[in-house]
Each structure stands twice: as C-alpha cells, then as structure tokens.
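User: Can you write out an input/output pair for a complex, sequences first and structure second?

Assistant: Here is one pair. Inputs:
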Amino acid sequence: MKLLIIEDQAELAANIDQYLKKEGFVSEMAANYREAVNKLGGYNYDLLLLDLMLPDGNGLDILKHVRSHFPSMGVLIISAKNALEDKVKGLELGADDYLPKPFHLSELNARLKSIYRRRNLQGEQVIKFNEIELNTDMMEATINGQHVELTKKEYELLLYMLLNRNRVLSKQSIAEHLWGDYMDAADSFDFVYQHIKNLRKKIVKAGGSDYIQNMYGSGYKFNEKR
Amino acid sequence: MKLIYKITLFYLTISFVVFLFGYLITYQVIKREIDLEQQRFLKDRLASALRMIERRPLTRPFEREKISIIPLEGEVPETGLLYSDTLVMHQSLERIEPHIKLDVVRKVGDRYYKISMYDLIIEEDDIEDGIQESLIKMYLILIGVVLLLAAISSYWLLKPFNLTLEKIKNFNLKGEEHTRFVKSSTSEFNKLNIFLNEMIRKMKKDYFALKEFTENASHEMQTPIAIARGKLELLLESDNLSDKQTMLVISAQDSIRRMSKIGSALSLLAKIENREFEQIESLNFSELVEKLLFDFKELIDLKEITVEEDIIKDVFIQMDSTLAAILVTNLLQNAIRHNKYQGEIFVFLDKQKLSITNTGDPLTLDPAQMFDRFKKNDQSRESVGLGLAIVKKICDINNFLLDYNFKNEKHCLTIRF
C-alpha cells in the first residue's frame, strides 16, 4: 500500500509514517502544496492523506487535481479546522473520508485500511484472520465457518481490533471509535469494558481463541500470538 | 414612550400648573375691576339722587327699589362713602340676592339725609364659571396644538436620529461594508454619528482580531495535541514498557483528550458568540429530538435508563440547524451523564418549550452557577464543564429562555422558545 502524506507538520507526518510502517504501508511525505503536486506527478500512490491547511495553498485544490487525474486513488482528509463546511466540501469533491485532528493513530489506520479495501480489493469484502472472518458488506462475523451473532457495536469493535492487530488500544480510542462525539454522554469507558467482555465470550463460545488481551485495565490488545 | 411625547407631557403638566395660577390671578383682577366699576356706578347714582334732593327737598323717607333716603332730624356728622355687601329681596327675580350697598349721611341744603343704595352684585360663582370655562377651552386647544406640533417637529427634528438608529439596527459586526451615517444639521446628532463611527471601527477591528485569534488558537492547538497523542501511541507500541509505564502513558492520553475537548469547546463558544452560525431555517425540531434520542439509545440502554417521551409532531423552530443539533446533543448528553443507573429521562416538546428531566443526585453547586464556564458539580468527573455553557449561549443568541429546577430528586432543564 503506497501512501502519500501531505502534512506541513513534520512531527505529525513522522508519527503517522512510523505507526503505519508496521501495517505494511509505504509512505512518502510532502510538506507543502508544491511538493505534493510534484510527488503526485512522479509516482503512483494507492492512498492520499491530505491536510487541508497547507502553508502555500489549499488542500482542496490538491483534491480536485487528484480526482481529475487519479480517480481510483483513495483520499482521507485530516484537518484541524473542525469546520463542517470543509468536511462537506471535501466529501463533495470526492474525498473518501474526513478525520478531524487530533485523531488516534489506530483510528487513522483503521480508516485508511477501509478506504484501501473499498477502492483496491473489489469483490473482496472478507477480512480473514485465522478462524475469524468478517464480511464487511453484510457486517457479519463467522468463526470456524460458524455464524456468530454480534451486535452492531460488537462487530465494529471486532473489526477495529482486527485492523489494529498487536496494537495497544486505549479504552479512550475504542470509545471514540464506537461512539464518536457522543462518547462524552455516558461513562463510556465502562461500556467499552462491557462490550469487550461480551465479544470475548461470544468468540470463545463459538470455538475461537481468546485473542483479546487486557492491558493493565486501561487498554486492550488483539494479540495474534495467543 | 417616545421622547417627544414625554417632553410634551412634561410641558403640558407645567402648563397646567401655570394655568392654575393664571386662574387665581385672572379671578382676582376681574373681581377687582368689577367691584370698582360697581362702586363707581353707585357713586353716579348717589350724585343724581343728591341733585334730586337739592331740587326738591324731602321731608319724608323715600323708599324705592334699590334706593332709600331717610331725612334725619337735627345735626348729624356727615360720613364718607361706606360700601358693604348685603342680601336684599330682588323684586323681579323674587328671591334674595346678594347686593352691594352704599351707605352715606350727607347734608343737602340744610337737612341731613341718610342715603342707602343697592345694586345687584355680579356673583363670584359666575366669575369663576366664566374663567374656568375659558381657561379649560384654552388648555384643550393648547394640548391639541402641542401634540400636533410635537408629532410634526419630532418627525422633522429626529429624522437624522432615526436614520442613525436604523443604521445601527441593521449593523452587522461580521459585515465587511462600512456603515455610513447621514450628515445632519443638528450638531448633537453629528457628534453622535462621529462617535458611533469611531466605535464601530474599533469594534470591527477587535472583532476581526479576536476571530482570527480564536481560529488560529484552535487550529494551532490541535496540531501539537495530535502530535503528542501520536507520540504517546507510538510509545505504547514499545515492547519493553512496564505495566506502570503503560498506565502512565494512557493516563497522559486521557489528559490530552480533555485538553483537546476544552480547545474545541472554547472555540465553539467563541464561534457561537461571533454569530458564525446564522443559517436560520425553519427546522423540524421534533424530528431532530427523535433522531438524537435514537442516536443516544445505545448509551441510554447501557446505563439501563428508561426514557419517556411526550413529543408533539412537527414542531418547527426558526434556528440554525447546526446549533440546534449541538443544543439537543448537549442537553441529552447532560441528562445521561448525570443520571443514575436505572434512572429515568423524560423528554417533553411542544411549540412553546422543550424540557428534559432526569433523575440524579442533587447539585452540590449553586444552581445559578451551573451555566457558567468550567462549573462542574463533581470536579473529578470526566466532563470538561462547558456543555451547559454552550447550551446557555445558544439559547441566548436565539432569545430562548433557559430554566433549571430540581424537584422530587429530578433535574429539569426547560427551554422556552
């Protein structure tokens, strides 16, 4: 998966690059508009991570350029301006998704992978890991070929963990992924615990291994090696 | 009440007092003139009576209407003219009427006579009635003329002032265009216009500076936060972290999240204050509340809260749709967060009001402070303490009334549209 990160904050770009390397992404970085257009002319990328605020131009112009020249490239917009217009405009111009700063790298990873899957692996709507299979089209899970009844949130949780295998996921990042802006309404961290508990039970009951590892009460990890 | 009518009323009140004094003065002057006139009249008649006696001296008392002449015996001292008021039977009116009386003792020829003459007095009542009637009519004319003049002159005099008011009313802080005031021939209004111009210029300058700052601050803050958050996530990936270190990292992440929340909530407050959400439309509030209740359903269920709704269909409210969503989201969030396990929420909506009632522990905070920024009932709680401040701000700019009360262990927030 080749990724171009267009982000003027070098530190942030370095974070993203380092985090995604483990997931098999090969990333290049562009710190401004000019550099971005140059790189887009010279190489072919699968995915584009686009910061809308650039020192020498507007990211939306890059988006227009990409859409007319590389219609199949996946684009994820990241922006510190949590402005609704930017989001709407970006999606209208053909971006695949929008993620406001600050985001969790695990969330970014999950979103990029989803875009990649949608754009590049046509027809392949199944994410497979050992005995677990997720059908992203039907939003259904099977373990050892057996259908497992999961609630919508449990399915989303499992998908999120599968996309972020072997990563420590804080309760916070999980809550934000599952409930977004609404997570503040309730004691959502306790609910994360409940969901994890139920999900584990269902996987083990269907004959799957217990991959979900509790990290000192403050996070979880989907551990391949268990 | 319009200024001009206030002035007019004030003027008319003063005129009324002046008219009262005028009444007293007029009464006295007229009374005095009449008295003098009557005395002169009696004096004239006395002179003709004396002439008559001179020609034909009387030996017997002479009594006619309004005159009596009594010849006196011997030597009596002459007196001066003595006027007095008395009551006499009036012959043609056939009733007793007040008269003015002149008594005098005079020597005519070689006899002394006591002469009394009467004349009908012009009664004080009549004078009073006359003066009253004329003054009241004059006062009524004055009121009419003054009101008419006030209306005309206020239109003419205050025209520049009203134009200025109109300009201020239509003034939009966000607007780029320059507000121009019409020059007037009244120096006070010109001064006002100059002052307003200066004020508007300063206001706009400050507003744009503040706006820029808020935007920049929010943007510039989120980026370092995003970087720090990423670094911590990368740190978590290290293989050789101890349990304690992991917990430290995760708790640092929590604080970072709160910081980011505060930043975006403050910038949202500033944006609402700057009236950046002004796409007023007719919004189906019932649908919005239903939709958000549905969105929150899972979190409500997880806390085993019972929700009761009494939502009238198709309640339309004029407001910005983004703000409406933020308003209801914050209210529901509040009702869920500060609720008990297996608590209750009651949502009521009709054309006049939206009220959300939830069970929960009583406030430890002064209810008057609950809409202030960073006021939290429980300082250790996860919340940032800006949710209700945002609710209040949205209500303020939409002129909604926001009300809180606590009854039967239940918190109730009511918004009157």
